[in-house]
Amino acid sequence: MPLPATSERTSTIDCSDMPVRAINREIRAALAGNSTKIMLLHPGARHNLGVALPEGTELTIDGPAGYYVAGLNDGATVHVHGGVGWGAAESMRDGVVTIDGDAGNAVAAAIRDGVVVVRGDASTRAGIAMKGGVLIVGGSVGPMAGFMMQKGIIIICGDAADGVADSMYAGTVYVAGKLGELGADAVVEEFTGGDRDLVYSHLERWKIPAPAAGFRKLVAGRKLWNFQKADRHLWKSAL
Amino acid sequence: MCGIVGFLDRLDRPDFPTGRVVLAMLDALGCRGPDSAGAALLRSDEIDGVWAVRIAPGDALALTRLEPLGVVERVEHAAGSLRFRFRPGPGVTPEGVEVALGACRDGLEVLSLGSRIDLVKQVGSPAQLDAAYGFSAWRGPLAIGHTRMSTESRIDLSHSQPFWAHGVSDLATVHNGHVTNYHQLRRRYERQGVTFYTDNDSEVIGVYLRDRLAQGRSLTEAMADSIVDLDGAYNYLVASAEGLGVVRDRFGFKPLMIAETDAFVAVATEEIALRRAFPGSFRVLEPAPGRALFYPLAVTPALV
Amino acid sequence: MSDSTPPPGSAADPSPMERSGTFTPGVIEDIQIKAELARYRIRGFGILRPRTWATFDDLTFVPGTLTRIPLEGYREKCSTKTVLGTRFASQPLELDIPLMVTGMSYGALSRNAKTALSRGARMAGTSTTTGDGGMLDVERSESRAMIYEVLPSRYGINVQHLRQADAIELTIGQGAKPGTGGLLLGSKVSDEVARLRDLPPGVDQRSPCRHPDFLGPDDMVIKIEELREATDWRIPIFVKMGASRVFDDVRLAAKAGADVVVVDGMEGGTGASPELLQEHTGIPTLAAVCEARAALEDIGLYGKVQLVIAGGLRHGSDCAKALALGADACYLGTALLIALNCNKPIYVEDYHAIGAAPYACHHCHTGRCPVGITTQDPELTARLEVDAASERVASFFHALTSEVQVLARACGKSDVHHLEPEDLRALTLEASMITGLPLAGTNRVYGGGPGWASH
């Protein structure tokens, strides 16, 4: 995607020789100076860029970011023009985080609301412990996507490796590509017209090419909600 | 718990600054492991019929004990270690050299032995490693490096990494994570007469590979076997005369990123190390858990 | 669920001559319950079996007599001021006393109990901690100093609450059950608790044992930096762990950048957990404090990284001994619940109805707490009257503080933080071996302390 044009209200920070603490301080200073658009150049996969940013902030990171980029997001819009490390957007309260490249382990971990878009592939445990919000992966995801998910939706346009939708309390995982071994208590449910409207409106909204194959819908079988002796075999693999 | 890095040159460039990029990667991972740093490098030139050996501490007197086994040549001292060439007599094994030198726990250690490998490590930062050994000037097609945050064992030279796979020429490993069935494995190998030189669980990886090789498995097969037999959380890298090995535990507990281009393969615990060491744009991937990858020298990688 | 330990003596009682010392009536009942249950047993409270290991009770203070001069109680003040988080935070946590409220969740506890703990702690000049369920508004408004826990489950994590915190506690585990996550049975997952945790109401909630986005101390370095960046390096970061491989774990937490390390011993409590974890995992609190201090000394950070000790601390002498052995502050949990009314002989028939009895209740997991503390049932929670309960919390903190002070003064200290190991003697060989303190009546140390220095 082309970088947005630099306007007068955009503050540009060249991260080349800066420690993370100084970069985040400059971001805060720019916000205090009434810039709402901030551009980071040469991020070099540094960790903890743009954490806990307030609503109204528009941060563009022109290159790869490390761990926890846009972590604890408080409503900001963050665009990463590259890949990201572990825990991108973790525990986001609200906001939008778009990642042009690939995402490391635990992207969108425990987010409560907002949208995370990964245009490339996501590694292990994508959307682990999600408590709401939407995670969209244009490519494939590694093992254990949606592990212990509680609410929200995950849309996977590529393949999902083993353990997808493992031990979810609730929430929905949509997968278009190949399904690995399903996680404990994951069940395939009918993909309805309502699901179709929801999934494809997200793909259109975030300009993700619709996959050739149709989507499967995975939800919690709810057998792990409360212990039942009759399900002890299921629990043996879950506990 | 540490940072690990690996590099493999695919263009056979004798002047490529391998030492410098490995140090740059280690430096970028400094916060993961402040306790010690080390690296193993494969030199381009093979010395026929001669072993290059590095021992620490640099006890020149110990070399007299090798006289019955062969010829010691070109002894060089560097930062408390000592490197020399050894022309073994008929039937002399790497293990025989270690025994003759008196290598044992808390005493003298053979850091590396082989026709191409050289290995240095010490307590302190990557910058200190460079200051002591001038590692940034080292050249060669393949290297692995390590920066350590000690967890359950001591901080000293011999507990630092890489570990030479004692007894196997030109084989060394670096490891990030922990092996949770280490004591069980160690006791099994000790019953078979294997000597352990440290209390570091990472040492068992080299011992394991050596055992599998002795049973006729290839290195790539041995690496694949280890995913079942070594429990816990680990990524480890293997430097051998054949190429660079990369192994991830079955759960993918520890981070690892690989950049693969036409010119090189670079592996590091975090992407930040790859971006710091290599300019230009290239894709960086996290390999799937439970995989052993092997990148042969100057050949495309094979998936095991 | 019928998941409680049977009252003692309820089993058939044959002649003692015919009883097995291995398969005791309790064991027989336990096996038969599990044969019905098909899983491990779950209960709350903490370890129940008799303490046969060395504890703080195996130490005694040696107050000033002729060699040293004790302080008077009236005019010769003994400071209790406590500062935590002096390493990196620009605003360390300043408390009037070295005793704090440990993390206990809304969910495990009722809203009234959380409110009373917050208000009582404020009245006593100390802090409260959120727990595995997010921050209640009333908890924040009633607290003077609020420690915000970031737990593996991330239930209720809200960056806007994080910013209101006076310290952050990154929790790795707890003393009652190191290596496993929290547990909240469906009977306590009320609509309100479910809403705050984003769970379906009524589910048996099992928290993960690990954080979702970091694994191991090397990745934790980056996580700690994230929390600091989110709060602009203003407030301290605590790292809390259950006492397990304490020496190594404490060194790693400090190396990873913690301002304060919290070590929670085996005697620590829990709202619900597999029973066998409470009984068979972890290191006792006395041993934990010794190992933790040795660990910080080993890496040269003792006095720079503060140490908070938790796990079954009951009275001033426990706390004073922990301080003398190296702690900077003590967390209290179960003792405060007891101050609230836990196990008090009131509503006795309701104890009996859940198979428990006053002084022997460990049924926090059922959500049927007769005194309204560990329950979400509106009728039961109403039994804990907030104003009176807050008073009891404040008074108990004052009582404990005065106990710590009286011991410190007796040892000639004008500051409770001046207590040192040499103010103590061991009463048993085992305590001498663990602490490195001389056995009373000898000048010899039997065992030489935590013994980790050879590492």
TrEMBL record, chain A:
Sequence intervals crossing the membrane: none
Gene3D superfamilies to which the protein is assigned, alphabetical: Glutamate synthase, alpha subunit, C-terminal domain (2.160.20.60)
SUPFAM superfamilies listed in its UniProt record: Alpha subunit of glutamate synthase, C-terminal domain
Lineage, highest ranks first: Bacteria, Pseudomonadati, Planctomycetota, Planctomycetia, Isosphaerales
Protein known as: Glutamate synthase family protein
GO molecular function: oxidoreductase activity
Superkingdom in the source lineage: Bacteria
Organism: Singulisphaera acidiphila (strain ATCC BAA-1392 / DSM 18658 / VKM B-2454 / MOB10)
From TrEMBL, chain B:
Glutamine amidotransferase type-2 domain: residues covered: 2-298
A Pfam cross-reference name: GATase_6
InterPro entries: GATase_2_dom (IPR017932), Ntn_hydrolases_N (IPR029055)
Keyword Transferase belongs to the record: yes
Gene Ontology molecular functions: transferase activity
Keyword terms, alphabetized: Glutamine amidotransferase, Transferase
PANTHER family: AMIDOPHOSPHORIBOSYLTRANSFERASE
Protein name: Glutamine phosphoribosylpyrophosphate amidotransferase
Species this protein is from: Singulisphaera acidiphila (strain ATCC BAA-1392 / DSM 18658 / VKM B-2454 / MOB10)
UniProtKB/TrEMBL annotation, chain C:
Keywords on record: Oxidoreductase
Single Gene Ontology MF annotation: glutamate synthase activity
GO BP, sorted A to Z: glutamate biosynthetic process
Domain of life: Bacteria
Region called Disordered, residue ranges: 1-24
Entries under InterPro entries matching the protein: Aldolase_TIM, GltB, GltB_archl_type, Glu_synthdom
Entries under SUPFAM superfamilies matching the protein: FMN-linked oxidoreductases (SSF51395)
Glutamate synthase domain sequence ranges: 89-413
Sequence similarity: Belongs to the glutamate synthase family.
Designated name of the protein: Glutamate synthase family protein
Organism of origin: Singulisphaera acidiphila (strain ATCC BAA-1392 / DSM 18658 / VKM B-2454 / MOB10)
